Amino acid sequence: MSRRFIIPVIFGLAGLAVFIWLGSWQLQRLHWKEGVLAEIDARIGAPPVGLPATPDPQADRFLPVEVSGVMTGDELHVLVSSRDFGAGFRIISAFETGGRRIMVDRGFVLATGKDKPRTTGAMTVLGNLHWPDERDSYTPANEPERNYWYARDVSVMAAALDGDPILLIARSQTDPGVKPMPVTSTGIPNDHLEYAITWFLLAATWVVMTGFSLWRIKRRSPEDKT
């Protein structure tokens, strides 16, 4: 092999190895993430238990819980968009159970139903505990005077409702006009397959570019024209 081919070949093989390694690593991450999502789905759908005395935001995330108590008329309205119905609000209500005052995410209503009266009183709610992380630097500040909330900040909402920082996302319907929005794993990102495909496509592109570069070197090589 001519010396002028050595460096491009080494550079091409090194780049190809890096892209293939990155694609393979993303496939490993995909396998890991699918396992995590399977565990979350199994946890979400497990048989419900009673409300823990001191729920832990990490250990008890997605824990299925069934509680009986009294749904009060105190509620917060969190602006949200539903893929099926459009813009509306999540209804977060205070729920008194066993001497405690927790919060129940009852589900979705259209904007026109924001201030309509809802079913209150004694009931049993089946759902999952959750501590959503929805606020970032782009999230607007809440407008409590209008009862417009832009993220489910559990501790902030609990203070506003004078209750414990415990949020139960209802699976069962608590009002005919409120559509439950239960916890699922669908909102948890899993883009590793797309990343893997991207790296492998870059590897293929790198091979083509390396081959083209070698072809140009060969055409310009004086000794190869004799």
What does this structure look like?
This protein is an alpha+beta fold. It has two domains: 72 residues; 108 residues, no CATH class. A hairpin with a 3-residue loop joins strand 1 and strand 2. Helix 1 packs antiparallel against helix 3.
Q: Termini, distance in Å?
A: 16 Å
- Order of adjacent strands in the largest pleated sheet: 1-2-3-5-4
Low-confidence stretches: none
How big a fraction of the residues is strand? 15-25%
For this entry, what is the oligomeric state of its chains?
Answer: single chain
The tally of helices reads 3
- What is the H-and-E element order? HEEEEHEH
Overall mean pLDDT: 90
The structural domain count equals 2
Supply Rg. 27 Å
The secondary-structure class comes to: alpha+beta
Helix percent band: 25-40%
Provide key terms for this protein.
single chain; 226 residues; alpha+beta; 2 domains; 3 helices
Topology:
Elements (H helix, E strand, L loop, with lengths): L2 H42 L19 E19 L3 E12 L2 E11 L10 E9 L24 H7 L6 E4 L21 H29 L6
Parallel strand pairs: 3-5
Antiparallel strand pairs: 1-2, 1-4, 2-3, 4-5
Helix pairs in contact: 1-3
A few lines on this structure:
The chain is of the alpha+beta class and 226 residues long.
